[in-house]
Amino acid sequence: MCTRSQYHNLFPFTLVSPHCRLHHAQEEAEVPFTEEAGRKPSSIQPLARAQAADKHVQNVRQNWSRWSLYALSQLKPPNTARTYFQQKWSAKASTRAYHGEHIREKKWKHMFKRTLPAVVSMDHKYLARNDGSEQAAGRGMGADAQDQTRTPAMTPYMQMAYYPLERRLDTAIFRALFASSVRQARQFVVHGLVKVNGKKMIYPGYALNPGDMFQVEPSSVMFATGAPKSRSSTARRIAKEKAAARAEAREQSGGQTPKQSSEDTTITQSSREEPTPTELKKYLQDLMQQVDEVLAEDVKAKDKQKFRALRQSVRKAIGSWRSASPETISTLDAQFDFLKTKIAERTVASPTSKPTEAPEPLISEEDQAKMRSAFEKLRLEAEYTSAWNSRNAAAPYATPWRPRDYMSAFAFIPRYLEVNQNICAAVYLRHPVARQGLAEVPTPFHLETGQLAFNWYLRNR
């Protein structure tokens, strides 16, 4: 047994009264801080210092935003100059901001597992070449030297720390590229837009089993992965700018070209005066009749295919004559004239005809170049404004549909998913595993960061 004085010498901090502690804290707070005197003794804990050091770091999130793309470019390995605790805390904070940041920490701790799944790849060539007896072959057996083999890559076990989260339904939807973020995928599930094995599933935390198939509504996928609509004010401003540019071009052109006929002049004047939809429909019907007359003639099979495609485009334009524009009609008309010109050139250049004089071209080279560009524009428009991708003002995404900005940097599908983009469905094949040189859990962080985060959760709490 030790006396009170001896106990005080061993553990002086246990005998300080609260009043003395308060007085000591007040004296410490009154000590001025100057650069000459050095840094004032701080009572900030290591955790607080680690948090203060990480304030300027932007976290990577599970979404396709440009901010996440910038944060990806700024990722760095852990700072080894800091304490081990600070490194673990920073790694845990940054990785949890990416993996399941919408999940409460207490729930994630229940999901965390110390055992990390991995597989060892067997070399089929080695197994076929040997039967195991070579392992006992040494000196005197003819095996004095070994062949120089390539050192196998290490298995990144530490990158699998968050593999339990990959079983969640919302995470699997995001990995299958059916949503632009995990939170959006969770919203799809809660709103009843997702089916698992043919039945509606409204629980985003549902743990998928190997072989489960999940499906998302295609319209929701197009909304999630497509470019957003521009604001109405922006659209009005762009429309006004285009209208002003067209008006200025009409004022500068003023009049007809030298080789323009009277009928073309009438058509041009009517288009300049913004014809009514009824007039546009009548002109489209006349154009359809001209195409039918050309098809009735003796035309080659390839040319007939082109004219049939043009007739189909004209028929679609007639079907939507109320929303037709003069630009669409001028493009179709230019394509028709271009095809007729091609047929005329082929007829003139045929070897059966023996012209005495060089035929004068029907249109100038400049006009031909304009027609070619108009034809190319129509071809591109047909690709992007086909029946499945036509303009639709009621759609919640920009039409014609195009991928979301910055999507290409995140467009990858992990190995444990089999995705069919045509029906917006995917199959969860198996749980992710670690292999030599590869971890199937997608993560943007370094191996050391994953190791530190895994060690943080190894603590017994």
From TrEMBL:
Residues 225-277 are annotated as: Disordered. GO terms for molecular function: rRNA binding; structural constituent of ribosome. It comes from the Eukaryota. GO terms for biological process: ribosomal small subunit biogenesis. Residues 253-270 have a biased composition (Polar residues). Residues 167-227 form the RNA-binding S4 domain. GO terms for cellular component: mitochondrial small ribosomal subunit. It is found in: Mitochondrion. The keyword RNA-binding applies. Component of the mitochondrial ribosome (mitoribosome), a dedicated translation machinery responsible for the synthesis of mitochondrial genome-encoded proteins, including at least some of the essential transmembrane subunits of the mitochondrial respiratory chain. The mitoribosomes are attached to the mitochondrial inner membrane and translation products are cotranslationally integrated into the membrane. This is Small ribosomal subunit protein uS4m. It comes from Leptosphaeria maculans (strain JN3 / isolate v23.1.3 / race Av1-4-5-6-7-8) (Blackleg fungus).
